[in-house]
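Epoxyqueuosine reductase
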Amino acid sequence: MLPSFLSHPEQLDQLACDIKAWALDFGFAEARIVDPDLAQYKDEYNQWLDQDYHAGMDYLANHGDMRFYPEQLHPGTRRVISLRMHYLPQSVETVERLKTKNKAYIARYALGRDYHKLIRKRLTQLAKKIEQAVGNHGYRAFVDSAPILERQIAEQAGMGWIGKNTLLLTPKAGSWFLLGEIFTNLPLPVDKPTATRHCGSCTACLTQCPTDAFVEPWVLDAGKCISYLTIEHKGPIPVELRSKMGNRIFGCDDCQLVCPWTKFAKHTKEEDFQPRHNLDAEDLITLFEWDESTFLKNTEGSPIRRTGFENWQRNIAVALGNAASDEATLAALKNALPHASELVKEHIEWALQQHLSHPIYEKSAITLPEPSTPPADPVD
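Structure:
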Protein backbone atom coordinates (compact mmCIF):
# COMPACT_ATOMS: atom_id res chain seq x y z
CA MET A 1 0.00 0.00 0.00
CA LEU A 2 1.53 3.29 -1.11
CA PRO A 3 1.60 6.25 1.25
CA SER A 4 -1.15 8.72 0.34
CA PHE A 5 1.35 11.39 -0.67
CA LEU A 6 2.59 9.07 -3.46
CA SER A 7 -0.87 8.56 -4.95
CA HIS A 8 -0.32 11.11 -7.72
CA PRO A 9 2.15 10.88 -10.65
CA GLU A 10 3.80 14.18 -9.77
CA GLN A 11 4.81 12.83 -6.35
CA LEU A 12 6.31 9.73 -7.93
CA ASP A 13 8.12 11.91 -10.47
CA GLN A 14 9.65 13.94 -7.65
CA LEU A 15 10.63 10.81 -5.76
CA ALA A 16 12.41 9.45 -8.85
CA CYS A 17 14.36 12.72 -9.17
CA ASP A 18 15.24 12.57 -5.48
CA ILE A 19 16.47 8.98 -5.78
CA LYS A 20 18.78 9.92 -8.63
CA ALA A 21 20.17 12.84 -6.66
CA TRP A 22 20.67 10.71 -3.54
CA ALA A 23 22.49 8.12 -5.65
CA LEU A 24 25.08 10.74 -6.62
CA ASP A 25 25.47 11.65 -2.95
CA PHE A 26 26.31 8.02 -2.19
CA GLY A 27 29.06 7.93 -4.82
CA PHE A 28 27.24 6.49 -7.81
CA ALA A 29 27.82 8.03 -11.22
CA GLU A 30 24.27 7.49 -12.42
CA ALA A 31 20.95 5.93 -11.47
CA ARG A 32 18.11 5.06 -13.82
CA ILE A 33 14.78 3.32 -13.36
CA VAL A 34 13.30 0.54 -15.46
CA ASP A 35 10.47 -1.95 -15.60
CA PRO A 36 12.59 -4.57 -17.36
CA ASP A 37 11.38 -7.03 -19.95
CA LEU A 38 13.93 -9.83 -19.66
CA ALA A 39 11.99 -12.82 -20.97
CA GLN A 40 13.03 -11.81 -24.50
CA TYR A 41 16.61 -12.91 -23.72
CA LYS A 42 15.69 -16.40 -22.57
CA ASP A 43 16.22 -18.29 -25.84
CA GLU A 44 19.50 -16.53 -26.62
CA TYR A 45 20.83 -17.18 -23.13
CA ASN A 46 19.88 -20.86 -23.21
CA GLN A 47 21.53 -21.27 -26.61
CA TRP A 48 24.72 -19.80 -25.12
CA LEU A 49 24.55 -22.36 -22.31
CA ASP A 50 23.86 -25.19 -24.76
CA GLN A 51 27.11 -24.33 -26.55
CA ASP A 52 28.97 -24.66 -23.21
CA TYR A 53 30.24 -21.12 -23.58
CA HIS A 54 29.83 -20.66 -19.82
CA ALA A 55 32.72 -23.16 -19.37
CA GLY A 56 33.03 -24.26 -15.74
CA MET A 57 30.70 -21.58 -14.35
CA ASP A 58 27.85 -23.96 -13.59
CA TYR A 59 26.11 -21.34 -11.47
CA LEU A 60 25.19 -19.52 -14.67
CA ALA A 61 22.92 -22.46 -15.55
CA ASN A 62 21.31 -22.66 -12.11
CA HIS A 63 18.11 -21.09 -10.74
CA GLY A 64 15.90 -21.94 -13.71
CA ASP A 65 14.14 -18.92 -15.20
CA MET A 66 14.65 -16.68 -12.18
CA ARG A 67 17.02 -14.31 -13.99
CA PHE A 68 14.32 -13.55 -16.58
CA TYR A 69 11.62 -12.68 -14.05
CA PRO A 70 12.69 -10.17 -11.37
CA GLU A 71 9.60 -10.81 -9.28
CA GLN A 72 10.89 -14.33 -8.63
CA LEU A 73 14.02 -12.88 -7.03
CA HIS A 74 12.11 -10.31 -5.02
CA PRO A 75 8.35 -10.83 -4.74
CA GLY A 76 6.41 -7.71 -5.54
CA THR A 77 9.10 -6.14 -7.72
CA ARG A 78 7.62 -3.38 -9.87
CA ARG A 79 10.76 -1.48 -10.84
CA VAL A 80 14.54 -1.91 -10.85
CA ILE A 81 16.83 0.98 -10.00
CA SER A 82 20.01 0.42 -12.04
CA LEU A 83 23.16 2.17 -10.84
CA ARG A 84 26.78 2.41 -11.90
CA MET A 85 29.97 3.42 -10.12
CA HIS A 86 33.36 4.33 -11.62
CA TYR A 87 36.31 2.23 -10.42
CA LEU A 88 39.43 3.21 -12.40
CA PRO A 89 41.93 5.25 -10.33
CA GLN A 90 43.52 8.14 -12.20
CA SER A 91 47.05 7.20 -11.14
CA VAL A 92 46.88 3.65 -12.50
CA GLU A 93 48.54 2.72 -15.79
CA THR A 94 46.81 0.33 -18.17
CA VAL A 95 48.30 -0.19 -21.64
CA GLU A 96 51.84 0.63 -20.53
CA ARG A 97 51.66 -1.95 -17.77
CA LEU A 98 50.70 -4.66 -20.26
CA LYS A 99 53.84 -3.85 -22.23
CA THR A 100 56.12 -4.34 -19.20
CA LYS A 101 56.64 -8.09 -19.21
CA ASN A 102 58.16 -8.46 -15.76
CA LYS A 103 55.30 -6.56 -14.10
CA ALA A 104 51.98 -8.15 -13.17
CA TYR A 105 48.77 -6.98 -14.78
CA ILE A 106 45.67 -7.26 -12.61
CA ALA A 107 42.26 -6.21 -13.88
CA ARG A 108 41.81 -2.66 -12.67
CA TYR A 109 38.57 -3.32 -10.81
CA ALA A 110 40.47 -5.71 -8.49
CA LEU A 111 43.31 -3.48 -7.29
CA GLY A 112 41.59 -2.26 -4.15
CA ARG A 113 38.73 -3.33 -1.93
CA ASP A 114 36.23 -5.91 -3.13
CA TYR A 115 33.61 -3.95 -5.06
CA HIS A 116 30.85 -6.25 -3.79
CA LYS A 117 31.38 -4.93 -0.27
CA LEU A 118 31.60 -1.27 -1.22
CA ILE A 119 28.71 -1.13 -3.70
CA ARG A 120 26.38 -3.31 -1.63
CA LYS A 121 26.88 -0.96 1.32
CA ARG A 122 26.05 2.08 -0.83
CA LEU A 123 23.01 0.37 -2.36
CA THR A 124 21.69 -0.42 1.10
CA GLN A 125 22.29 3.16 2.21
CA LEU A 126 20.33 4.44 -0.78
CA ALA A 127 17.48 2.00 -0.17
CA LYS A 128 17.33 3.07 3.49
CA LYS A 129 17.24 6.72 2.38
CA ILE A 130 14.23 5.93 0.20
CA GLU A 131 12.67 4.14 3.13
CA GLN A 132 13.11 7.22 5.29
CA ALA A 133 11.21 9.23 2.70
CA VAL A 134 8.31 6.87 1.90
CA GLY A 135 8.28 4.18 4.57
CA ASN A 136 8.70 0.47 3.89
CA HIS A 137 8.80 0.17 0.11
CA GLY A 138 9.88 -3.46 -0.19
CA TYR A 139 13.32 -3.73 -1.71
CA ARG A 140 16.34 -5.95 -2.25
CA ALA A 141 19.83 -4.82 -3.27
CA PHE A 142 22.16 -6.77 -5.58
CA VAL A 143 25.70 -6.38 -6.88
CA ASP A 144 26.83 -9.27 -9.08
CA SER A 145 25.44 -11.57 -6.41
CA ALA A 146 22.35 -13.25 -7.87
CA PRO A 147 21.01 -14.54 -11.20
CA ILE A 148 20.45 -11.10 -12.71
CA LEU A 149 20.89 -9.89 -16.29
CA GLU A 150 22.34 -6.63 -15.03
CA ARG A 151 23.70 -5.34 -18.33
CA GLN A 152 20.39 -5.96 -20.09
CA ILE A 153 18.59 -4.19 -17.25
CA ALA A 154 20.95 -1.22 -17.51
CA GLU A 155 20.55 -1.10 -21.28
CA GLN A 156 16.76 -1.10 -21.01
CA ALA A 157 17.04 1.65 -18.40
CA GLY A 158 18.83 3.83 -20.96
CA MET A 159 22.19 3.79 -19.19
CA GLY A 160 24.02 2.72 -22.33
CA TRP A 161 24.19 -0.23 -24.67
CA ILE A 162 25.75 -3.69 -24.62
CA GLY A 163 28.83 -3.61 -26.81
CA LYS A 164 30.18 -6.36 -29.02
CA ASN A 165 32.50 -7.25 -26.13
CA THR A 166 29.35 -8.01 -24.04
CA LEU A 167 30.11 -5.12 -21.66
CA LEU A 168 27.82 -2.17 -21.06
CA LEU A 169 29.10 0.93 -22.86
CA THR A 170 28.09 4.52 -22.41
CA PRO A 171 29.26 7.64 -24.24
CA LYS A 172 29.55 9.24 -20.81
CA ALA A 173 32.20 6.88 -19.44
CA GLY A 174 33.11 4.04 -21.78
CA SER A 175 32.92 0.85 -19.71
CA TRP A 176 35.15 1.48 -16.67
CA PHE A 177 32.34 1.15 -14.16
CA LEU A 178 30.54 -1.47 -12.07
CA LEU A 179 26.80 -2.08 -11.88
CA GLY A 180 24.39 -2.62 -9.01
CA GLU A 181 20.62 -2.88 -8.68
CA ILE A 182 17.82 -2.19 -6.23
CA PHE A 183 14.64 -4.16 -6.83
CA THR A 184 11.75 -2.14 -5.42
CA ASN A 185 7.98 -2.48 -5.07
CA LEU A 186 7.49 1.23 -5.80
CA PRO A 187 5.74 2.05 -9.13
CA LEU A 188 8.30 4.69 -10.07
CA PRO A 189 8.29 6.39 -13.50
CA VAL A 190 10.69 4.65 -15.86
CA ASP A 191 13.48 6.06 -18.01
CA LYS A 192 13.64 5.66 -21.75
CA PRO A 193 15.75 2.78 -23.11
CA THR A 194 18.81 3.23 -25.29
CA ALA A 195 17.69 3.75 -28.86
CA THR A 196 20.55 1.98 -30.65
CA ARG A 197 23.86 0.25 -30.03
CA HIS A 198 26.67 2.55 -31.10
CA CYS A 199 29.48 0.10 -31.91
CA GLY A 200 28.98 0.58 -35.63
CA SER A 201 31.43 -1.38 -37.78
CA CYS A 202 34.16 -1.39 -35.11
CA THR A 203 35.50 -4.86 -34.25
CA ALA A 204 38.57 -3.91 -32.19
CA CYS A 205 37.43 -5.83 -29.12
CA LEU A 206 36.83 -8.96 -31.20
CA THR A 207 40.00 -8.98 -33.26
CA GLN A 208 42.38 -7.86 -30.52
CA CYS A 209 41.27 -10.26 -27.81
CA PRO A 210 44.51 -12.07 -26.88
CA THR A 211 42.89 -15.53 -26.86
CA ASP A 212 40.23 -15.04 -29.57
CA ALA A 213 37.51 -15.60 -26.98
CA PHE A 214 34.73 -13.97 -29.00
CA VAL A 215 32.88 -16.39 -31.24
CA GLU A 216 31.09 -13.49 -32.91
CA PRO A 217 29.87 -10.05 -31.85
CA TRP A 218 28.05 -10.25 -28.50
CA VAL A 219 29.01 -13.93 -28.02
CA LEU A 220 31.84 -14.78 -25.60
CA ASP A 221 33.32 -18.25 -25.17
CA ALA A 222 34.26 -17.97 -21.50
CA GLY A 223 36.48 -21.04 -21.75
CA LYS A 224 38.96 -18.96 -23.76
CA CYS A 225 38.58 -15.73 -21.80
CA ILE A 226 41.58 -14.74 -19.66
CA SER A 227 39.29 -13.40 -16.96
CA TYR A 228 37.66 -16.79 -16.64
CA LEU A 229 40.94 -18.70 -16.89
CA THR A 230 42.69 -16.68 -14.18
CA ILE A 231 39.76 -16.32 -11.76
CA GLU A 232 37.06 -18.96 -12.12
CA HIS A 233 38.84 -21.85 -13.81
CA LYS A 234 40.13 -24.69 -11.68
CA GLY A 235 42.88 -26.97 -12.93
CA PRO A 236 45.46 -26.58 -15.67
CA ILE A 237 45.23 -23.67 -18.08
CA PRO A 238 45.06 -25.01 -21.66
CA VAL A 239 48.59 -25.14 -23.04
CA GLU A 240 47.62 -23.44 -26.30
CA LEU A 241 46.38 -20.37 -24.41
CA ARG A 242 49.25 -19.88 -21.96
CA SER A 243 51.59 -17.93 -24.23
CA LYS A 244 48.69 -15.62 -25.17
CA MET A 245 48.05 -14.59 -21.57
CA GLY A 246 51.14 -12.38 -21.33
CA ASN A 247 51.52 -10.88 -17.86
CA ARG A 248 47.80 -10.96 -17.01
CA ILE A 249 47.52 -12.81 -13.71
CA PHE A 250 44.02 -11.84 -12.55
CA GLY A 251 41.40 -10.82 -15.05
CA CYS A 252 41.81 -9.00 -18.34
CA ASP A 253 40.90 -5.50 -19.54
CA ASP A 254 41.95 -5.75 -23.17
CA CYS A 255 38.48 -5.56 -24.73
CA GLN A 256 37.95 -2.33 -22.78
CA LEU A 257 41.36 -0.88 -23.53
CA VAL A 258 40.96 -1.18 -27.30
CA CYS A 259 37.40 0.14 -27.33
CA PRO A 260 37.18 3.68 -28.81
CA TRP A 261 34.67 4.64 -26.13
CA THR A 262 37.40 4.18 -23.50
CA LYS A 263 38.59 7.74 -24.17
CA PHE A 264 35.49 8.96 -22.34
CA ALA A 265 36.30 6.98 -19.18
CA LYS A 266 35.86 8.79 -15.87
CA HIS A 267 38.15 8.15 -12.92
CA THR A 268 36.98 7.08 -9.51
CA LYS A 269 37.17 9.24 -6.41
CA GLU A 270 36.60 6.27 -4.12
CA GLU A 271 39.52 5.64 -1.81
CA ASP A 272 38.58 1.96 -1.55
CA PHE A 273 39.32 1.47 -5.25
CA GLN A 274 42.89 2.77 -4.92
CA PRO A 275 45.58 0.06 -5.35
CA ARG A 276 46.70 -1.90 -2.32
CA HIS A 277 50.15 -3.46 -1.82
CA ASN A 278 51.47 -1.90 -5.06
CA LEU A 279 49.29 -4.32 -7.05
CA ASP A 280 49.08 -1.96 -10.00
CA ALA A 281 52.85 -1.97 -10.54
CA GLU A 282 54.36 -4.95 -8.73
CA ASP A 283 56.98 -7.29 -10.14
CA LEU A 284 55.82 -10.79 -11.04
CA ILE A 285 58.65 -12.31 -9.03
CA THR A 286 57.67 -10.42 -5.88
CA LEU A 287 54.09 -11.71 -6.12
CA PHE A 288 55.27 -15.23 -6.98
CA GLU A 289 57.35 -15.31 -3.81
CA TRP A 290 54.36 -14.62 -1.55
CA ASP A 291 53.65 -17.63 0.63
CA GLU A 292 50.06 -18.56 1.38
CA SER A 293 49.87 -16.59 4.62
CA THR A 294 51.16 -13.48 2.83
CA PHE A 295 48.65 -14.01 0.04
CA LEU A 296 45.79 -14.30 2.49
CA LYS A 297 46.95 -11.25 4.44
CA ASN A 298 47.50 -9.04 1.39
CA THR A 299 44.24 -10.04 -0.31
CA GLU A 300 42.01 -9.64 2.73
CA GLY A 301 38.88 -7.79 1.59
CA SER A 302 40.04 -8.06 -2.04
CA PRO A 303 38.31 -9.76 -5.00
CA ILE A 304 41.64 -11.52 -5.69
CA ARG A 305 40.83 -13.91 -2.86
CA ARG A 306 38.33 -15.55 -5.22
CA THR A 307 41.02 -17.28 -7.28
CA GLY A 308 42.77 -18.87 -4.27
CA PHE A 309 46.47 -19.19 -3.54
CA GLU A 310 47.15 -22.20 -5.75
CA ASN A 311 45.59 -20.62 -8.82
CA TRP A 312 47.37 -17.34 -8.00
CA GLN A 313 50.69 -19.20 -8.22
CA ARG A 314 49.57 -21.03 -11.34
CA ASN A 315 48.71 -17.74 -13.06
CA ILE A 316 51.99 -16.07 -12.12
CA ALA A 317 53.99 -19.09 -13.29
CA VAL A 318 52.42 -18.70 -16.71
CA ALA A 319 53.19 -14.97 -16.71
CA LEU A 320 56.81 -15.69 -15.77
CA GLY A 321 56.98 -18.06 -18.71
CA ASN A 322 55.93 -15.14 -20.91
CA ALA A 323 58.33 -12.70 -19.25
CA ALA A 324 61.76 -11.70 -20.53
CA SER A 325 64.43 -14.33 -19.89
CA ASP A 326 66.84 -13.37 -17.14
CA GLU A 327 68.54 -15.06 -14.22
CA ALA A 328 66.05 -13.70 -11.66
CA THR A 329 63.07 -15.14 -13.55
CA LEU A 330 64.70 -18.53 -13.98
CA ALA A 331 65.79 -18.64 -10.35
CA ALA A 332 62.30 -17.74 -9.09
CA LEU A 333 60.75 -20.54 -11.13
CA LYS A 334 63.35 -23.13 -10.13
CA ASN A 335 63.24 -22.18 -6.44
CA ALA A 336 59.46 -22.64 -6.35
CA LEU A 337 59.51 -26.15 -7.82
CA PRO A 338 60.27 -28.21 -4.69
CA HIS A 339 57.36 -26.73 -2.75
CA ALA A 340 54.82 -26.38 -5.56
CA SER A 341 51.60 -28.36 -5.82
CA GLU A 342 51.26 -30.67 -8.80
CA LEU A 343 49.09 -28.09 -10.55
CA VAL A 344 51.56 -25.26 -10.05
CA LYS A 345 54.53 -27.51 -10.84
CA GLU A 346 53.07 -28.28 -14.27
CA HIS A 347 52.89 -24.57 -15.08
CA ILE A 348 56.37 -23.85 -13.69
CA GLU A 349 57.83 -26.56 -15.91
CA TRP A 350 55.99 -25.10 -18.89
CA ALA A 351 57.37 -21.66 -18.01
CA LEU A 352 60.93 -22.98 -17.81
CA GLN A 353 60.49 -24.60 -21.20
CA GLN A 354 59.67 -21.18 -22.68
CA HIS A 355 63.10 -19.92 -21.62
CA LEU A 356 65.01 -23.07 -22.60
CA SER A 357 66.32 -21.74 -25.93
CA HIS A 358 67.48 -18.40 -24.51
CA PRO A 359 71.23 -17.98 -24.03
CA ILE A 360 70.74 -16.96 -20.41
CA TYR A 361 69.49 -20.46 -19.71
CA GLU A 362 72.80 -21.94 -20.83
CA LYS A 363 74.71 -19.58 -18.50
CA SER A 364 72.59 -20.40 -15.49
CA ALA A 365 72.99 -23.35 -13.19
CA ILE A 366 69.39 -24.34 -13.73
CA THR A 367 68.57 -27.77 -15.09
CA LEU A 368 65.11 -28.31 -16.48
CA PRO A 369 63.31 -31.09 -14.61
CA GLU A 370 62.45 -34.20 -16.54
CA PRO A 371 58.78 -34.19 -17.50
CA SER A 372 56.59 -36.76 -15.86
CA THR A 373 56.38 -40.01 -17.83
CA PRO A 374 52.89 -40.46 -19.25
CA PRO A 375 51.15 -43.76 -18.58
CA ALA A 376 51.60 -46.41 -21.25
CA ASP A 377 48.73 -47.07 -23.63
CA PRO A 378 46.64 -50.05 -22.53
CA VAL A 379 47.47 -53.30 -24.28
CA ASP A 380 44.65 -55.12 -26.00
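Confidence is low (pLDDT under 50) at residues 371-380.
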